[in-house]
Design goal:
Number of strands: 4
Helix content: 40-55%
Radius of gyration: 22 Å
Number of helices: 21
Strand order of the largest sheet: 1-4
Oligomer: single chain
Order of helices and strands: HHHHHHHHHHHEHHHEEHEHHHHHH
Distance between the termini: 39 Å
Length: 525
């Protein structure tokens, strides 16, 4: 899904107020414009590809690394001479002139915009007798629109939900209440779950791997349901999806999707397994963002996983791990949270001492060195000690190629366990058992199912996958503060979670200014 479509419109959209009327009055720079482009199913497919393309723009300041730095599992990290922005995410500080989180906001709204463009033009396409294809494209686009809305909403709280492309009179729309935003999200996800077929694209070499499926939509319903109902203390998902419906959806994904757990947890991650790597098109990947190294150093493309360089060891390759910037150093508390025999610890985290790697933090100019860093998503070297991405002709900063797992089957099992609590304790227990049995490679480490047990299991199973911070704040800011606050003899590791922020991140200041007063900065910032 890597082809581009050039459409004259707000393709470089920042937010509602970021585009002037002068821009809108300019002549199109291509003869393909929205008014004349959408005619054939092939045109619609190109439009759909353009929506998917936004997923690859994780870049350097995306929600994965920001939320992990803010959680109790990581510190800010990076180099001692690097800008302090990553420390600010770690320590809940804010510098107004840095436009923090601008990438997250703009990427979310670019994705929403492209989805709306496609959805508004589907009726112009001559589908012939293939109306099922139209429904499929609508379902995929609506799923992606829901995803981009949720990415913003879980970071910033109240946002501006958009079910259409905006006109000039709407450039300064205010933020909506959560029930409005989540109703749009829920309706989009429900449409996707109810209208996509039963295909499972997690087979070796499947050309559609990375596309939305019914099973991804059902799992995403569970994810948004749990976050919304927990954080906002609601009984259902914005009046659209009831608890019983959410349970039905997630149980369907567990039982009928054809997805399953990879036998060995370590084989999910390239740096943890190498020769035994299960491959990215494995049965556990319910939905992942696909990357590749085809950009070959072209900074204008977004084919590679630009996130990976952030968390790789700073100052040069060490052992089998390729070089990077040393961001989001791992908190020893996470490493120590794993029980003896839990195979997930050494597959998730690099322990330099335990792996006999002499990491000289001072020489490498590593900030907030803890002795631990990410193994998940860490790029690797070849037998000659050269980063594989460079050996293949790419740039180590932008051409890493590992996919980003957004939903794994293990996550589906844990969400099912949580949603089935209180109505089907036996099923909840069985779903939790499957995750722990895989982690320990035996059945002797099972524990009684409870919400606390499931949330702790989520921390261990999904560590460094962008879920921990949001699992904390949905339990309440008091729970988040108890977990995140850190006092250390070395003051560089001191962290104080500020409950007055309500768990939300600061809005990019550029968007506050562009709104001409209709958007106010989040509380506490």
């Amino acid at each position: 899904m890597k082809r581009y479509i050039k459409l004259f419109a707000l393709s470089s959209l920042l937010v509602l107020g970021a585009c002037s009327e002068d821009f809108l009055e300019n002549e199109p720079y291509t003869d393909k414009v929205t008014e004349n482009f959408y005619k054939t199913p092939a045109d619609a497919f190109e439009g759909l590809v353009a929506v998917y393309d936004v997923l690859q723009r994780e870049a350097y300041g995306g929600p994965l690394i920001v939320s992990e730095q803010a959680s109790d599992d990581c510190f800010g990290g990076f180099g001692i001479a690097d800008p302090a922005g990553d420390l600010e995410w770690d320590r809940f500080l804010y510098t107004i002139d840095k436009d923090m989180n601008a990438n997250i906001w703009t990427t979310s709204y670019l994705g929403i915009y492209r989805a709306n463009i496609l959805l508004e033009n589907l009726d112009k396409v001559n589908w012939g007798a293939n109306t099922a294809l139209k429904t499929q494209y609508e379902a995929e686009a609506r799923f992606l629109r829901a995803h981009f809305h949720f990415q913003a909403a879980k970071m910033f709280g109240d946002i501006i939900p958009l079910d259409h492309t905006v006109t000039t009179s709407e450039f300064e729309l205010p933020r909506a209440t959560p029930d409005v935003t989540y109703a749009l999200i829920a309706n989009d996800l429900k449409f996707a779950a109810d209208n996509l077929g039963p295909e499972n694209y997690s087979q070796k070499g499947n050309a559609n791997y990375g596309r939305i499926t019914k099973w991804a939509a059902e799992a995403y319903i569970a994810r948004t349901f749990l976050f919304y109902t927990d954080y906002y203390k609601k009984a259902d998902l914005a009046g659209v999806i009831t608890k019983a419906q959410a349970v039905t959806y997630i149980n369907d994904a567990v039982s009928n999707s054809g997805h399953g757990l990879v036998a060995d947890f370590a084989n999910l991650w390239l740096a943890a397994s190498f020769e035994n790597f299960a491959g990215e098109d494995n049965t556990e990947m319910v939905w992942a963002v696909r990357f590749n190294g085809s950009g070959k150093g072209n900074w204008d493309l977004h084919e590679g996983n630009r996130f990976q360089v952030n968390i790789a060891p700073r100052g040069g390759a060490i052992g089998k791990y390729a070089t990077g910037w040393g961001g989001a150093t791992v908190n020893p508390d996470l490493y120590n949270a794993y029980e003896a025999g839990d195979t997930r610890r050494n597959a998730t985290i690099i322990s330099y001492a335990d792996e006999n790697l002499n990491f000289d933090a001072q020489a490498r100019e590593q900030r907030q060195y803890t002795g631990y860093s990410w193994k998940k998503y860490c790029p690797i070297t070849n037998a000659a000690g050269t980063a594989v991405v460079e050996a293949n002709g790419g740039n180590f900063q932008i051409d890493n190629y590992q996919d980003y797992a957004i939903i794994r089957y293990a996550d589906v099992l844990l969400m099912a366990a949580e949603l089935n609590l209180g109505t089907n304790a036996g099923l909840a227990q069985a779903d939790l058992d499957k995750v722990r049995d895989r982690a320990f490679k035996n059945t002797t480490h099972r524990i009684a199912v409870s919400k606390a047990a499931i949330l702790n299991e989520r921390r261990l199973e999904l560590a460094l996958e962008g879920q921990r911070y949001f699992d904390l704040i949905r339990q309440g800011v008091d729970v988040a503060k108890a977990a995140i606050d850190n006092t250390d003899a070395d003051s560089q590791f001191n962290v104080t979670f500020r409950t007055e922020t309500l768990g939300w991140f600061p809005l990019p200041q550029s968007q506050v200014i562009l709104s001409n007063g209709t958007i106010k900065q989040n509380p506490g910032w």
